[in-house]
């Protein structure tokens, strides 16, 4: 029986031309889903020179929705005003599943609300971790709770992220899947291996970066220089590491408010010849910076997944990183040295990594093939597709959620997300004393707008858009 | 009975190398519809005349009555007398004049007159394609074949909607020329016109648009 294919709309505020991790995640996932025979459109807001409807490689149709044309002020909150256009796009493109990305994206939250009102299945992917204590996180958590009260399924990029999201939005853990990010390993290849007879010492097997006893060892750091990326930790650790290991150099790429601290540290300790600051690096040049080093240092204080350490390992670098957030899940232990997020431990861990590399104990030349086998977007797309099949009812509940999910009554109350307005209102009402009532009001207004739109712009007067020619879905790989 | 329909397409092909695509909102002319349209035209004429009369009265009340005895001014005097004699339209005009100040009345009348002259019950837009010569839109724009880089179907946001429309890309111009800009017919009509235009303009047979890059490439539009 041929697999069913879906029409999917990815909704996010963040998309190309703006660079970033979420942006490339959406692009890669969409591209691979199209390879599997699905139809994918991306809905985002208009950027300065990017308005209207465009096509990207592989037939990804991108809607840059121009809010500035509807309202003169670009930052106007558009909770309900997005609905008419959204409905038009959804009907034109015959969308069945709305997939929102990133919790800071208000467009995504609105889209999920509208999609549920229109009776579509929704998936939400969370890309980041949040705290619980400060005012901003409390507000953000309330908003997230609003969105996730009525979503069909949630995807997180790591198990830590799943735990965080389940706690923040008080979800049933069975509703949350973990699908990690991936890297395009072709873009992160290590330097070509030198000829075996070109080195002075005949070693067998040859290490990836043959380090002579007096060769300089280079440590690379690529991150935005912000507090949460651990730049303060880095600033404190660099002088001590260089003191302990004189034959070591640092290359730091990235920009941010903490860059000034790093520069001060370099000046104070007179390390200009040992620490090189590259400033911001474009994503396509990251690999060229990485392959200049032997160790990748990642001092982040919080991280949902940490794609960059996968990229570093794929380039054949030994990774030193803090054991925070989702990082410990990302790479196998033989590729990494973990440190507690504090200065002493970071210095000690870096010391261990330098010693291991100097002793040629780490087989970094094999990292690329191993990472390639672990992380591929094709695999991510396959797993995401399984989520789509689960929420669309093409997999049975037992198959999708597991066989030990308890009785049916409990099931339909929490996970069987039906579209009846009263059931949706019940779910929203439980969000809080005041928030619950406010959310219910929003949902009712949204529903009334929907009824009005159905009358004012009847469904049958909206043309269907032509589809990009679909690819034939691959036959062989069913459930693994 | 409805005065307009959704836009529909009429294709005329007077010769094998010529085609005219007309998109119109005029429903089929039944006798009752003809009567209705006629009465609407009559009503518009009467309204327009009334507005002209108001404007004339306004003008006459401002300027001094004609005193010289040239034939033109004599005629004007006769006309003035005829128009200001107590008939219902003249009474309405002088009533309005007495109650509304002239500076408000004059622009309002002029505006209403303009709207009456411009407003139309139906709209029709056409595209004339002449092989070897070019295309002409109903806006009066003629684009010679040599300057047409491509004819394609595109989509864009318009208000709260996404609309499909047909454009002609003209060589050396930044803006494309939108065909049927007022009516913006639906995707089905646009597609038929697009096929027809390409067939007529480039002699592409049924096979040209079906994929193997016959004739010219389609950039940005879709390829079926």
Helix-strand blueprint:
The complex is a heterodimer of chains A (480) and B (224).
Chain A (H helix, E strand, L loop, with lengths): L6 E5 L9 H15 L3 E7 L6 E5 L3 E6 L1 H4 L12 H10 L4 E5 L4 H12 L3 E6 L8 H14 L4 E4 L2 H11 L6 E3 L38 E6 L8 H14 L3 E6 L5 H11 L5 E5 L6 H5 L4 E4 L8 H8 L3 E5 L4 H4 L5 E4 L3 H16 L8 H8 L2 H15 L5 H5 L6 H7 L6 H9 L3 H24 L24
Chain B lengths: L7 E8 L2 E7 L6 H32 L8 H14 L3 H12 L2 H17 L5 E7 L3 E4 L4 E3 L3 E11 L2 E10 L6 E3 L7 H16 L22
Antiparallel strand pairs in B: 1-2, 2-3, 3-4, 4-5, 6-7, 7-8
Helix pairs in contact in B: 1-3, 1-4
Describe this structure in words.
The complex is a heterodimer of chains A (480) and B (224). With 480 residues, chain A is an alpha/beta fold. Chain A folds into two domains: 261 residues, Rossmann fold; 190 residues, Glycogen Phosphorylase B (Rossmann fold, 3-Layer(aba) Sandwich), CATH 3.40.50.2000. Helices cover 40% and strands 15% of the residues of chain A. Chain A contains 18 helices and 14 strands. In chain A, strands 3-4-2-1-5-6-7-8 form an eight-stranded mixed sheet, sandwiched between helices. In chain A, strands 11-10-9-12-13-14 form a six-stranded parallel sheet, sandwiched between helices. In chain A, β13, α11 and β14 form a beta-alpha-beta unit. Chain A starts with 6 loop residues before the first strand and ends in a 24-residue tail after the last helix. Chain B has 224 residues and is α+β, with helices and mostly antiparallel strands. Chain B is 41% helix and 24% strand. Chain B is built from five helices and eight strands; from the N terminus they run ββααααββββββα. Chain B is elongated and about 70 Å long. The C terminus of chain B is likely disordered. Classes of the chains: A alpha/beta (480), B alpha+beta (224).
